Amino acid sequence: MEEQLMKGLKPTVYKALRVLSPSQIQEIHKVTMMLLEKVGVIFEEEKALELFGNAGAKVTNEVVRLPTELVESLLKRCPSKVTLYARDQKKSVHLGVNRVHYTNGYGTTFVKDLETGKIREARLEDLRNFTILGDCLDNVHYIITQVIPQDVPAEVADVYQALTLLKGTEKHVGLSVTKSTYLDQVIEMGRLASGVDGTNGGKEKFVFSLGTVPISPLRFSRDGTIRLLKLPQEGIVTRIVSGATSGATSPISLAGTLAVQNAEIIAGICLVQIVNPRNPTICGTFAGPMDMLRGKQLWAAPESAILNAATAQLCRFYGIPFGYGTGGVADSAALDIQAGIEKTYTLLYTALSGVDVIHDAIGGLLGTAMVSSYEQMLLDDEICNMVNRGLQGIAVNPETLALDLITEVGHHGNYLSTEHTFRHFRNELFLPRFLDRRSFNERREEELKVLDTARLRAKEILATHRPKRFPPEVEEKMDQVLKGVLKNLGIEVSALPNFSEEIEKKGTKLHFK
Amino acid sequence: MKGDLHDIGKNLGSILLTGGGFEVVDIGIDASPEKFADAISVRRPKIVGLIARLTTPMPQMKTTLDFLKRLGLMEGVKSIVGGAPVTQAYADKIGADGYAPDASSAVEKARELLAS
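^ Those are the sequences you sent over. The predicted structure of the assembly is below.
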C-alpha cells in the first residue's frame, strides 16, 4: 500500500466529484470570454502591453481586451501535461494525468514553537525545519516556501527562501518571490540546482517552478507581470494562481467568483503563451469567501473547497494542469477539534474533486494560513493517508472476493486465523500512525496523545533526516549568489541556510545552529 | 507601507471602510513616507491608516508617522495601525492613536477615533 500511496491516485480509478454540469461550465466559459473581450485585464507593464497589442489584443492604457478567437488559439498552445522535475528524478511530479498530489504549506509569518507551544514570529531555522519535514514525508510531492522568515532583512527574504528550499530537498521546489527585484538571482540559483546552463533552447529540466498572483479583480501588478514575461523566456514552468475573495474582490456568488478567477488565469496564460508558445504553465486557486463578520478571507469554508472542485473541472475543460489547488488550511487558530474538522473536510473534498496538486495540504497551517504548526504537519500527513485510502477504493477480484475462503470457513469458523487475513490486512486497511484508537477505559485523562505522538515524530525527523547534499562546488556557487546580493546591499552575511550538520542520534535533545 | 507587498489585507481594509461609509484614498502597497505626505497634503483626510502583514516592514510605520508629524501633517489627523504582527503595545510605542487587529475592527476603531 505504501508504494501505491506514494504514486498517488491511479488514472483507472479516477472518478472525480462534479459540482458543475457541462452546461454550467459552458455558461461560465461564455461569461469569462465576455469579461476578457469587453472588460479586459490590467497588466501594469509596458512590454506586456506591447506584446498583447502585436498579438491582436485591444490595448487601452493598461487594460488588455482579448478577442475570443485569440484566447482560444493561445489556450491551444498551453500543454495539458506538465512535469515538475525533481533533483531525484523518481520524485518528479507529472501533472494532468488524473493523480492527486500534495505540498507543504505556504508563507506563514508565525510558527507554533515545537518546544514551548507558543505562537511566535517565523525564523529562518523554521523554514529549514519545515523543508526537512517536507523532504522526508512521502505524501509531500513538492516543496513550497512554508514560512516568511522575520529574522532576515525583508528586501532579501526572497533570495534566502529560494536558497533554503533548493538546498533543502531533492523534490521539486515551487518557489515564490514577493518582489521581482532579485528574480535573476533566484533563477540563477535554480539553474545551478537544476544543473542546467541555459543553452538547451528552452528544453531544460528545471527543478523549480515560479509564478505570480493576480490582484483581484482583473489586474496583474507590474512586479507580477515582469515574472510572466521573464519565466517563459527561460522555459521555466510558470504558475498563475488566483486568490479572489468572494464578497470583497470578486462577487459573493461562487459562479461570479469563478468567472473573475477564470478571466485572470486565462489572461495570464495568454501572456505566457505569447512570450513562449508551449511553455509549461500551471494554474491554481486559493479563492474563498470573506468572513462577513470579521472581514478576512476564509480558507476552510465549504465554499473554498467547492471553488476548488469547480476549478478542477474548468481546468479539465481547458486542458490546463491544476498545479496549485488549496486544501487543508484551518481557519481555527488552535490545535483543536475545529482545526481537525476544517482540514479533513477541505482535504477530502478537494482530493475527491480531482485537484492535481493540493497546496497547503501538509503544512500544519492554522489561523487562516497565518500560523505553521510542526505537530499539525504530521497530523495533516495522516489525514492525507486516510484520504489516499479513500481514493483507492475497493479492489474486486477472485482473490479479494474470496469465494473459496468464505465457503471453507462456513458458518461457525472465523477469519482471524486464516492465511488470507494475514496476506491482505496491510493492503486492505489504513493503519494510523497517530490516531488514538484506544478504548475510553485505557485512555482516561490522557487527552492529547495524538499531539504528543506527532510532536515526538516531528522531533525525530528533524534529528535524523537530512536532504541529500549538492556537490560542494555547486553548493558554494549557490551560496555565492546570496552572498553577492548581501554584499551589494552592504548587509553583513550572517547564517546561511545550512543542512550539513551531523545527524544526531534518535531521542537526543535538539539544538539548532 | 514601504517594504510590504501584500495586497489582500490592505484591500480588504479599504473595502470594509468604504462599506462602513468612509471615503477611502488607497495609496497602494509599498508606499513611502513621501507618498503618504503627498496624499495627505492633497486629500486632507481625517484618519491615516497604516497596515503591515510582515514584521519586517513594521519599523517603517514609526518612520512614516514620525516623518508626517515632523512635516506638521498630522495636526488634526488621527492615525491607526494594524495587520497581523502589529499589537496594541506597538501602536502605543510608536505613538499611533488607534490599533486594529483586523479589517472589521478597523472600521469600529475609525468611528471611535472620529467620535473622540
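The domain at 7-115 of chain B is CATH 3.40.50.280 (Rossmann fold). Chain B is about 45% helix and 10% strand.

Shout if you want it in another format.
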